[in-house]
Protein backbone atom coordinates (compact mmCIF):
# COMPACT_ATOMS: atom_id res chain seq x y z
CA UNK A 1 0.00 0.00 0.00
CA UNK A 2 1.24 3.47 -0.84
CA UNK A 3 -0.17 6.75 0.40
CA UNK A 4 0.36 10.05 -1.40
CA UNK A 5 1.36 12.78 1.03
CA UNK A 6 1.14 16.44 0.08
CA UNK A 7 3.22 19.22 1.63
CA UNK A 8 1.69 20.78 4.73
CA UNK A 9 0.71 24.44 4.53
CA UNK A 10 1.80 26.74 7.33
CA UNK A 11 -1.79 27.62 8.27
CA UNK A 12 -2.50 23.93 8.82
CA UNK A 13 0.32 23.78 11.35
CA UNK A 14 -1.25 26.64 13.25
CA UNK A 15 -4.67 24.99 13.18
CA UNK A 16 -5.90 23.87 16.60
CA UNK A 17 -7.91 20.94 15.23
CA UNK A 18 -7.54 17.74 17.14
CA UNK A 19 -5.64 14.92 15.46
CA UNK A 20 -4.64 11.53 16.77
CA UNK A 21 -1.19 11.16 18.23
CA UNK A 22 0.94 8.06 17.69
CA UNK A 23 -0.17 6.47 20.97
CA UNK A 24 -3.82 6.74 19.94
CA UNK A 25 -3.03 5.31 16.53
CA UNK A 26 -1.11 2.44 18.16
CA UNK A 27 -4.14 1.74 20.34
CA UNK A 28 -6.38 1.60 17.25
CA UNK A 29 -3.97 -0.75 15.47
CA UNK A 30 -3.74 -3.05 18.49
CA UNK A 31 -7.55 -3.09 18.73
CA UNK A 32 -7.78 -4.08 15.05
CA UNK A 33 -5.21 -6.84 15.62
CA UNK A 34 -7.30 -8.16 18.51
CA UNK A 35 -10.42 -8.18 16.33
CA UNK A 36 -8.56 -10.16 13.67
CA UNK A 37 -7.08 -12.62 16.18
CA UNK A 38 -10.56 -13.30 17.55
CA UNK A 39 -12.14 -13.58 14.09
CA UNK A 40 -9.54 -16.07 12.89
CA UNK A 41 -9.09 -18.05 16.12
CA UNK A 42 -10.34 -21.21 14.38
CA UNK A 43 -8.29 -20.63 11.25
CA UNK A 44 -4.60 -21.08 10.55
CA UNK A 45 -4.13 -17.32 10.08
CA UNK A 46 -3.95 -14.27 12.31
CA UNK A 47 -4.25 -11.24 9.99
CA UNK A 48 -6.47 -10.14 7.10
CA UNK A 49 -3.42 -10.03 4.83
CA UNK A 50 -3.15 -13.82 5.15
CA UNK A 51 -6.66 -14.56 3.88
CA UNK A 52 -6.94 -17.06 1.04
CA UNK A 53 -9.67 -16.56 -1.60
CA UNK A 54 -12.08 -19.01 0.11
CA UNK A 55 -11.57 -17.19 3.42
CA UNK A 56 -12.13 -13.82 1.74
CA UNK A 57 -15.57 -15.03 0.63
CA UNK A 58 -16.29 -16.15 4.21
CA UNK A 59 -15.00 -13.16 6.18
CA UNK A 60 -15.24 -10.24 3.75
CA UNK A 61 -18.81 -10.28 2.54
CA UNK A 62 -19.88 -7.19 0.65
CA UNK A 63 -23.32 -5.62 0.62
CA UNK A 64 -25.11 -4.71 -2.60
CA UNK A 65 -23.70 -1.18 -2.74
CA UNK A 66 -20.19 -2.38 -2.01
CA UNK A 67 -20.45 -5.08 -4.70
CA UNK A 68 -21.57 -2.45 -7.22
CA UNK A 69 -18.62 -0.20 -6.31
CA UNK A 70 -16.15 -3.09 -6.54
CA UNK A 71 -17.50 -4.18 -9.92
CA UNK A 72 -17.22 -0.63 -11.24
CA UNK A 73 -13.64 -0.33 -9.96
CA UNK A 74 -12.77 -3.76 -11.36
CA UNK A 75 -13.81 -2.74 -14.87
CA UNK A 76 -12.63 0.90 -14.82
CA UNK A 77 -9.22 0.12 -13.35
CA UNK A 78 -8.74 -3.16 -15.23
CA UNK A 79 -8.05 -5.05 -12.01
CA UNK A 80 -6.75 -8.59 -11.89
CA UNK A 81 -8.16 -11.25 -9.55
CA UNK A 82 -5.10 -10.72 -7.34
CA UNK A 83 -5.71 -6.96 -7.17
CA UNK A 84 -9.39 -7.58 -6.40
CA UNK A 85 -8.47 -9.83 -3.46
CA UNK A 86 -5.91 -7.35 -2.15
CA UNK A 87 -8.47 -4.54 -2.20
CA UNK A 88 -11.02 -6.67 -0.35
CA UNK A 89 -8.46 -7.66 2.31
CA UNK A 90 -7.34 -4.06 2.75
CA UNK A 91 -10.94 -2.86 3.05
CA UNK A 92 -11.48 -5.49 5.78
CA UNK A 93 -8.49 -4.02 7.65
CA UNK A 94 -9.78 -0.47 7.20
CA UNK A 95 -13.16 -1.60 8.57
CA UNK A 96 -11.41 -3.22 11.55
CA UNK A 97 -9.53 0.00 12.27
CA UNK A 98 -12.87 1.83 12.21
CA UNK A 99 -14.37 -0.76 14.58
CA UNK A 100 -16.89 -1.83 11.95
CA UNK A 101 -18.17 -5.39 11.81
CA UNK A 102 -18.97 -5.04 8.11
CA UNK A 103 -17.06 -3.63 5.17
CA UNK A 104 -18.84 -0.40 4.31
CA UNK A 105 -18.67 1.58 1.08
CA UNK A 106 -16.27 4.10 2.65
CA UNK A 107 -13.84 1.33 3.65
CA UNK A 108 -13.90 -0.17 0.18
CA UNK A 109 -13.53 3.22 -1.51
CA UNK A 110 -10.47 3.99 0.62
CA UNK A 111 -8.87 0.66 -0.31
CA UNK A 112 -9.60 1.25 -4.00
CA UNK A 113 -8.05 4.69 -3.74
CA UNK A 114 -4.79 3.20 -2.43
CA UNK A 115 -4.72 0.71 -5.30
CA UNK A 116 -5.31 3.49 -7.81
CA UNK A 117 -2.38 5.39 -6.31
CA UNK A 118 -0.18 2.31 -6.83
CA UNK A 119 -1.13 2.31 -10.50
CA UNK A 120 -0.47 6.05 -10.84
CA UNK A 121 3.10 5.95 -9.56
CA UNK A 122 4.25 2.37 -10.00
CA UNK A 123 2.21 1.20 -12.98
CA UNK A 124 1.13 -1.92 -11.04
TrEMBL record:
Pfam families (alphabetical): Mg_chelatase_C (PF13335)
All residue ranges annotated as the Mg chelatase-related protein C-terminal domain in the record: 20-115
InterPro entries named in the record: CHLI-like (IPR045006), Mg_chelat-rel_C (IPR025158), P-loop_NTPase (IPR027417)
Source taxon at top rank: Bacteria
PANTHER family: COMPETENCE PROTEIN COMM, MAGNESIUM-CHELATASE SUBUNIT CHLI
Name of this protein: Mg chelatase-related protein C-terminal domain-containing protein
Native organism: Geosporobacter ferrireducens
